[in-house]
Amino acid sequence: xxxxxxxxxxxxxxxxxxxxxxxxxxxxxxxxxxxxxxxxxxxxxxxxxxxxxxxxxxxxxxxxxxxxxxxxxxxxxxxxxxxxxxxxxxxxxxxxxxxxxxxxxxxxxxxxxxxxxxxxxxxxxxxxxxxxxxxxxxxxxxxxxxxxxxxxxxxxxxxxxxxxxxxxxxxxxxxxxxxxxxxxxxxxxxxxxxxxxxxxxxxxxxxxxxxxxxxxxxxxxxxxxxxxxxxxxxxxxxxxxxxxxxxxxxxxxxxxxxxxxxxxxxxxxxxxxxxxxxxxxxxxxxxxxxxxxxxxxxxxxxxxxxxxxxxxxxxxxxxxxxxxxxxxxxxxxxxxxxxxxxxxxxxxxxxxxxxxxxxxxxxxxxxxxxxxxxxxxxxxxxxxxxxxxxxxxxxxxxxxxxxxxxxxxxxxxxxxxxxxxxxxxxxxxxxxxxxxxxxxxxxxxxxxxxxxxxxxxxxxxxxxxxxx
Length: 468
Known about the structure:
- This protein is an alpha+beta fold.
- The chain folds into two domains: about 10-190 and about 305-445, Zn peptidases (Aminopeptidase); about 190-300, Alpha-Beta Plaits, CATH 3.30.70.
- Helices cover about 35% and strands about 20% of the residues.
- The protein has 13 helices and 15 strands.
- Strands 1-2-6-3-7-15-8 form a seven-stranded mixed sheet, sandwiched between helices. Strands 11-13-9-14 form a four-stranded antiparallel sheet.
- α2 runs antiparallel to α4 (about 115-135), α6 (about 215-230) crosses α7 and α12 (about 410-430) packs across α13.
- The chain is globular, with a radius of gyration of 23 Å.
- Mean pLDDT is about 95; it is low at about 1-5.
């Protein structure tokens, strides 16, 4: 099967996405090849900045003081539509492309396990397409592409939202790689990320144990206390942790220092704040029990998402108009082999029908248990997001299997499809201001009575996850 024409007559400006397919695919592959983690995406950001300049966008770097945050602007006047583009990677997922088994790449430390190479690629494509519409129609309106770093473990958009980067937007449009194709209507969890540190008194564990005060004991007691807390949280709350410093690997030493990173999640911003305060009490209690000192550092946070039903229906209508790419035999054969090998036993895997690009019907909002800093943007302005099936079904985000598929021709095709849906959604809002006004009215109702209250304190600065 060959790929059919995916540019309906109603949307001629979308043709630029196909015309620039090689450039966009190269962008996606560059972000894959040069995977970088939170707030250290220097190569990726520089490549995208250079591309936007060449495409005629007015670029602003170091946005809100974040070295790897940037924007590309085109047009004039209202409405102002933002296109969000992520590009950061995940540590520990250094995986060969197009492999059917786990094959770490020697010398690499991270990989595109959430498909953000495709995310950035498609969002740039959408911005270029909207620019073409504005040029050819001579319409009033502005498109701003936002290069948003550190979604993984850094909540880059939350810092940017706190510091006003999105305040001028009338709406924001975005997407995410996935195993299905649909408008996102599910709700994400708000979260706080915090480092807890314990300091005690080191001593000889055999000869002088009574002189020591174990920081590792304190950390372990904190972890146990949090396990008991789980029984007394609401069903949708989550608390995860990673021990990052055990105080050394000598068992005959009473460890004088220990620390862990905690990620605390809850459905609403206020709920996660309350859960954080309870975790703090457990940490203080662990220090009291062990006669150690406890301190904690607030690293980042992100808000829960606010769904805008007006925009959901605008985007879904565009998905009904614009055909989804058809997989080739080569696309299917690769996905079938991966399903029978690397994805074997995974929930939802479908070895005989491994690619599910068809648009799923609109679903009612329900609570999911992941988090995204898109949530903070959705508190600032009406925001809408789609998933596009770049992966075989059964693929989990944050996995080597997702990394392996990130440079496939099928992933490129579906990313370009996502670019078309985002561009067509934005153009609809430019063409029909009354629809955008309805979306803004709904947004004001949804965020009432307080509006956006940044969950990150004003004195907290972005910090690279590799430096925690």
